[in-house]
Amino acid sequence: MKLGLVLLVGIGLIGAGVGYRQYEQHQVAVAQQKEQAAVKQVKQLKAAEKAKRLADKKKQLAEKIKADPFSKTESTNEQITSMLEADNFVGTALVVKDKKVIYQKGFGYANYDKKLKNGPRSKYQILSIQKSLTAAGIMQLVQAGKVKLSDKLSKYYPSITHGDDITIRMMLDMSSGLQLKKAPEEALPENQVVNFAVTNATYDAKKHGVFNYSSINFLLLAGIIRQQSGISYQNYFEKNIIKKLDLHDTGFVIDGYGKNGTIGYQATKTQVNADYTPVASEPESQMTYELGTGQVYMSAGDLFKAESAILEGRLMSASNVEILHTRTATSPYAGGLYRVDAGTLRSHGMGYGQESAMMLSNDGQSGVILLSNYWRPAVNIQTPMAKIYEEMMLGNLN
């Protein structure tokens, strides 16, 4: 009897010990979870504070630029140069008023190691600005009767989900609801890039009919240009943009920049001054994947020449230009450009250490283009671009 009692007590003690250890392990786990949550919260707070400091810094720089008055009595060259130098701009600036170049100047280095400086003919990736040229290609096919803006996407790509609900117009205005779930990991020829996009396209009903920036729209539009023209997108671009407009500083990044090419540099999140480190990299897979959306380089002069030709109705009829750039109900974005107001359009792109920004008059006669090979998150080159454009249109630059 005593032995049984001792055994029961022993078993009870063992059970209690096991139970206590489990309780102890649970408490340790809970404590670790709380500690991890606290660490995560601290990191989130620090990230939020850093983001706020960066936003405040951008705002201060922007306000400083906007507050700097221009004067009709001072030279255009001095005023613009002073502003861009204060902004530590690296790249090429071009200002055109009534088809006359009133300012063109390079800043900083195209290649720091070789001490090659940026100049009027330096070549930069225009990045997302290319979408406006792809849109022009689509509108040329509309004018030729090969495509309709009311066409359903399913007409060209039957396998894409909800293709019957998406029109070419929606794709031009980024309101299709389409997204790409992943990017290819290797360089692919054009037809395979399009096939990859078709296979990996996803549809979000909540974003259907409202503005949602997604490059797959223009990648597929580039594919439609392939289908309906009977030649590759690159050949179509070379024939209908480069050769037709006699552009000499324009091409595809995958083929190399050649003379006057620039190297892209990537600044830290808070860096303003240029120290040209590190060099930004771009894998060949990205060069091919950005089909129709950001794979072209141009000089500032060539970019203005091309965009001006579109707006002046030299690549399509004036009525089709107006249709292409008529803003949608949910966004100022239309046909690859943002409608600022009735008389002004703008565009912007960034990536791989390069940044592009332009603002144009509706008639294509005047504009400001800033192309940079030193992307700095802490500085927005659209601010000085807008300031220069505003002062020019006010008559303070001649």
Structure overview:
The chain is an alpha+beta fold and 398 residues long. It has eleven helices and 16 strands. The chain has helices at residues 2-67, 76-86, 130-143, 168-172, 190-199, 216-229, 233-243, 284-289, 300-311, 318-324, 382-394; strands at residues 91-97, 100-107, 109-111, 116-117, 124-125, 178-180, 201-203, 251-252, 265-266, 296-298, 333-334, 337-341, 344-351, 354-361, 367-372, 374-375. The strands form five sheets. The protein has a seven-stranded antiparallel β-sheet, with helices on both faces. The protein is globular. The model is unreliable at 5-9 (pLDDT under 50).
What is the number of helices?
11
**What fraction strand?**
15-25%
The main pleated sheet reads as: 7 strands, antiparallel
- Characterize the overall form: globular
Structural class: alpha+beta
Q: How many beta-strand elements?
A: 16
- What radius of gyration results from the CA coordinates? 28 Å
| Helix/strand order | HHEEEEEHHEHEHHEEHEHHEEEEEEH
Low-confidence stretches: 5-9
Distance between the termini: 112 Å
| Arithmetic mean of pLDDT | 89
Strand order of the largest sheet: 2-1-15-14-13-12-11
Helix content: 40-55%
